[in-house]
Design a protein that fits this description.
- The chain has a two-stranded antiparallel sheet.
- By secondary structure, the chain is mainly alpha-helical.
């Protein structure tokens, strides 16, 4: 589990499992998006990277809002 052709997919310290329920249309869109970067996409890796990206964007937006508020521009 977590292996794809003897290539490690998950970080060594990964200790959580997430179950996601999706519609067929969502699955197709996600699979196509994941396929853009890989010949054999792994949706778990794609979703983990998407969630990490989204969390980083939210953090950056919060930090920017705090800076703008501190400078009196918000």
């Amino acid at each position: 589990m977590g292996q794809e052709k003897s290539r490690r997919i998950w970080p060594l310290d990964a200790d959580r499992t997430v179950t996601v329920r999706v519609t067929h249309e969502q699955w197709v869109r996600w699979y196509e998006a994941a396929s853009n970067g890989s010949m054999k996409p792994h949706l778990g890796t794609y979703l983990a990277r998407a969630a990490d990206f989204y969390a980083a964007r939210l953090k950056a937006r919060g930090e920017m809002a705090r800076r703008l508020e501190k400078d009196g521009r918000l």
